[in-house]
Amino acid sequence: MPIRRRSFIIFILLLAMFTALSGCNRDSNAAPVSESRLLLDTVCTITIYDPAIQEPLIEAMELCSQYEFMFSRTKEGGDVWRINNAGGMPVEVDEQVVRLLREGLYYGDLSGGWFDITIGRLSALWDFNGAPAVPSQEALVAARNTVDYRQVFIDGDTVRLGDAEVMLDLGGIAKGYIADRLADFLKERGVESAIIDLGGNIVTVGLKPSSGRRSSGSGRRSNGGQLWNIGVTAPFQARSELIGSLSVEEASIVTSGIYERQFIENDTLYHHILDPFSGLPVDSDVMSVTIVSESSAVGDALSTIVLLLGSEGAVPMLEQAPGIMGAVLMLKSGELLQFGDINFIADGGER
After folding, report:
1. For position 25, what pLDDT does the model report?
2. What is the CATH number of the domain that holds 255?
3. How many other C-beta atoms can be found within 10 angstroms of the C-beta atom of residue 167?
């Protein structure tokens, strides 16, 4: 896929949803239904654009909560928590946990160990969700020595860790996996148009209902639906400062960046994308990456890998990865690398 370069920096967010919703009301005479909850350490929102189908909305949120419990390393009694606290003994887990672990191990192999789902002791040491501080060198070395995804062993529906000190942390892929499962659930329940927004992970289901207005581009489809318009803004800036937009049909849009969870100590920025080999926040040339793909789990894992490997190491991998529609890499230099079949409009597109 050819690479195109622009000299600005972007990152993803949902663009002016309420403006679009008011247009939809003129056609359907009823407002879409939406539900938001604080889950997965972020605000999760699901919006269904068929008001006649409301029951799946609450059920989908409950399903999201169930997945969070299963996959969290900190929620006592959950499957991952039980694996981490089993002292290396085998633990029987839900089949969804097995599926997610297998995906995580696959990306460990693909990245040569840069993506590692056993980074739990390192991520707990930094505690970006609590009171983050730079750990001591002694603590970093001890935690780093427990990181090895090859210590995860799966046998049917049981999982064990080869070393009792190893700790799973599925934060680099779990949100994407959950978003995929929620999209599957909504479609199984007959939903034809919806948006799932799990923080930096957005999944669109079907097309956006037509607003009855003439689109300024090629967003209108023959069946009356329109492409979803996903807004773009500069990182470290107010999210209202849009510089462009992506137009997508049914797809996953995942953005990861060093600005999401970070702190400054002694005039140095420390962020949550950790190098599993050094134990420190990774220092690559990539500040943010947005991946448009068929699967949100794929986008989630690959966006982290890109930040870890940097542009030189990551671009060849992205060009060969299955299910990737395109990507945008935002470099610390201010340069943007874009490749793939994605529709980015520099002026922000239709409001």
Report:
1. 38
2. 3.10.520.10
3. 23
* pLDDT, tens digit, 9 for 90 and up, residues 107-140: 999 999 999 999 999 999 998 888 889 999 999 9
Three-state secondary structure call for residue 147: coil
Q: How far is CA 263 from CA 22, 200, 234, 270, 272, in A?
A: 39, 19, 19, 5, 9
- 235 Cβ contact list (under 8 Å, min separation 6): 9, 10, 11, 257, 259, 287, 288, 330
The b/e string for 108-141 (b: 16+ C-beta within 10 A; e otherwise) is beebeebbbbbbbbbbbbbebeeebebbeeeebe
Length of the chain in terms of residues written: 351
In-domain check, residue 141: no
Coil, strand or helix: which one is 340? Answer: strand
> How many domains does the chain contain in total?
1
Look at residue 301 and tell me if it is in a domain: yes
Classify burial at 97, counting beta carbons within 10 Å of its beta carbon; exposed 0-12, middle 13-18, buried 19 or more.
buried
CB 16 within 8 A of CB 351: yes
Return the exposure string of 315-326: e unless at least 16 CB atoms fall within 10 Å of the residue's CB, then b.
beebeebeebbb
Answer yes or no: is 148 within a domain: no
CB atoms within 10 A of CB 346: 12
Cα-flanking dihedrals φ and ψ of residue 318, to 5°? -65, -35
**pTM value?**
0.87
| Cβ–Cβ < 8 Å for 206, 194 | yes
C-alpha angle with apex 290: 348 to 304, nearest 5 degrees?
160
* Range of the structural domain that residue 278 is part of: 3-49+196-345
Q: How far apart are CA 336 and CA 4, in angstroms?
A: 8
Please report whether residue 310 resides in a domain.
yes
The pLDDT of residue 323 is 87
pLDDT at 328: 82
